[in-house]
Every structure is written in C-alpha cells, then in structure tokens.
Amino acid sequence: MTQTTDLDLVNLELKARAMRAAYLRGLVSAMFARLRSGKPAHAAA
C-alpha cells in the first residue's frame, strides 16, 4: 500500500477541476454553436 500525501490529494483535486472545466467549456461551446446555427434555444442574457 502506498502512503497518500497531501501532494497526491492536491494533484487529484487539480485533475478533477481541469476535467470539470473542460466539460463546462464543451457545454458552453455547444450552446453557442446551437445559437449561431439559428436553432431556437432558451433565451440567454
């Protein structure tokens, strides 16, 4: 068994944040692509 250090936890947290950011970026770009193509979407501010 390996010892889990604080550094390991920080690396995991950074990886999780990067994945979440990439996912959100994908959602936003898909939303903008839909808006640009002229299909009706829910009203954005």
From TrEMBL:
InterPro entries: RSP_7527-like. It comes from the Bacteria. This is Uncharacterized protein.
